[in-house]
Amino acid sequence: MTKPERAPASFSVEIDEQPSKRRAVFSQDVQNLGSWHVLSADDAAALSSHHRRKVDDDSLRLIDDLTNRPLDPLFSDARLTQQKPHSKFSIWFTRIIVFIICIAVGFVGSVFVRQLNTDPRKQVRASLISELQQQNTSLKKITTEVTDLHAKVVKQSDSMPDARPDSTLTQDEMTNGALAVKGPGIVFTLADPVASSAANGAGPRENSTNHIRVVTDSDLQGIVNLLWKAGAEAIAINGYRIGVSTSVRTAGQTILIGVNQVASPYKIEAIGNSKDLSQAMNSKAQPDLYRTLNAAGINPQVSRSYSLRLAAAEATNVTYAKRSK
């Protein structure tokens, strides 16, 4: 009885028959693994079945596999497909390309994030503020020219030989604010709370989330009305005279006296009987006003002055009003 033939072991592939690309378990060529025997598939299967013992012991099967098939086909396939190492030029060229791509992606991403974090309302607001400042500057220049021309007209009228001062006209112009005046009176000063301007280094009206009570146009209007009621003959706020057509209002976040911007502290000058005005505007005469302002951290101050000078109010043109007989 001849000795049964043994199944041949797996042989390495020759150099001219090596695969041209890598193969993995999930590739389409995995089905060809195990086909590198010198015998045909049928003969190898017959010899393998003839050689393998019919045993039910798992340990004997493991020993048989380790003895006759020590090299795993997948490992052999991986070893047979090793590629040649890349050159240094290709490695560094790839690194440079990847580095440039990373810089480009980071730059584009930072620009995109910066655009997302940009608030377009700030640009619009800055543009409107710049336009308003230009308009106010132009209007102030024109108003100054009109006032100067009016003063020149009055001066020329007074210098005429037959000119006689009209006391009634002078009285009306001083009452309406058309002429600069001087005299005794009081100075009523109030300012926004100090804590209200600490947020982000901005004014209290520039932060919409700030709920601290500040001086408003309504406060200034109420104080001006109280001064008129107490007998004031001429009133100015931060140097801007209150005339017959001068308004005290809020435009956005700014208080305007006519068309002029004013900010805290607010200095209200009133010409009249300084004693009567001081008594009419103290805490005893106006307890509700002082209580409301003090509760918000606003502390008004009243001081008497024996000589105040108030400029003329801005002149306006009368177009539709006509003298009535």
Write the layout of secondary structure elements.
Elements: H1 41-51, H2 58-68, H3 73-80, H4 88-117, H5 120-159, H6 167-176, E1 181-190, H7 217-230, E2 234-237, E3 240-241, E4 248-251, E5 254-257, E6 260-262, E7 266-271, H8 274-280, H9 287-295, E8 301-310
Antiparallel strand pairs: 1-7, 1-8, 2-3, 2-7, 4-5, 5-6
Provide a brief overview of the structure.
This protein is of the alpha+beta class and 325 residues long.
Word description of this protein:
The chain is an alpha+beta fold and 325 residues long. The chain folds into three domains: 17-80, no CATH class; 126-156; 172-310, 2-Layer Sandwich (Alpha-Beta Plaits), CATH 3.30.70.1880. 43% of the residues lie in helices and 13% in strands. The protein has nine helices and eight strands. It has helices at 41-51, 58-68, 73-80, 88-117, 120-159, 167-176, 217-230, 274-280, 287-295, and strands spanning 181-190, 234-237, 240-241, 248-251, 254-257, 260-262, 266-271, 301-310. It has a five-stranded antiparallel sheet with strand order 3-2-7-1-8, with helices on one face. Strands 4-5-6 form a three-stranded antiparallel sheet, covered by helices on one side. A hairpin with a 2-residue loop joins strand 5 (254-257) and strand 6. The protein is elongated, with a radius of gyration of 49 Å. The termini are far apart.
